[in-house]
Amino acid sequence: MSFAMITTVNKDGVTSIGPHSLTFPFDLIEQPSWMLISRAGSNTTENLLNGSKAALHFVEFKKSWLKPIVKLGYPGLEASEKMKDIPFKMVKSPSPEYADDPTFPLLMDDALEVFECEVDGEFKYQPHRETD
After folding, report:
1. Residue 72: pLDDT band by 50, 70, 90 thresholds?
2. Tens-place pLDDT, residues 26-48
3. CA distance 35 to 71
4. Are strands 23-25 and 15-20 parallel, antiparallel or unpaired?
5. Is residue 117 within 8 Å of residue 8, measured between CB atoms?
6. Which DSSP string do the residues of the chain spell out, in sequence order?
7. Is the dihedral of CA 27, 30, 31, 32 positive or negative?
8. What is the pTM of this model?
């Protein structure tokens, strides 16, 4: 099953990673968006509701990463505990608008691809619209 490693920032300014299998591009034509389905009460959900931005990381398969990735998905762990022994190098965003933003999470330097995202409340789902 494919998944994205999603980084967000908690209220204490600590980046947290959560693996999510329910992520996919949504409205690509008119308003590029990404849909994320996250468990209520998860660190990712709480951080996004508190104003954190997010980065979706897609990583290659490495057998040595399986256990650490599964551990990052355990509910109830605080960000500092989750991030203690991760095998990933974390770096600041290279994007000028996010590099010094305290609400933007660190990025996984090992990711093959990263989508930098904001929850802006602007998306309006219109299932029966007509487009060119």
Report:
1. confident
2. 777 777 778 888 888 899 999 99
3. 23
4. unpaired
5. no
6. ---EEEEEE-TTS-EEEEEES-EEE---SSS--EEE---TT-HHHHHHHTT--EEEEE----GGGHHHHHHHT-TT--HHHHTTT--S-EE--SSTTTTT-TTSPPEETT-SEEEEE---S-----TT----
7. positive
8. 0.85
Cα separation, 111 vs 56, in Å, equals 9
33 within 8 A of 26, measured Cβ to Cβ: yes
Q: How many residues belong to the chain?
A: 132
User: Rounded to whole angstroms, how far apart are CA atoms 54 and 106?
Assistant: 9
Phi/psi of residue 63, nearest 5 degrees: -55, -35
Residues 6+ apart with CB under 8 A from 32: 25
Calpha distance 43→10 (Å, rounded): 8
Surface-to-core class of residue 7, CB atoms within 10 Å of its CB (0-12 exposed, 13-18 middle, 19+ buried): buried
Quick one: tokens of 80?
């500092």
The Cα 55–Cα 123 span in angstroms is 18
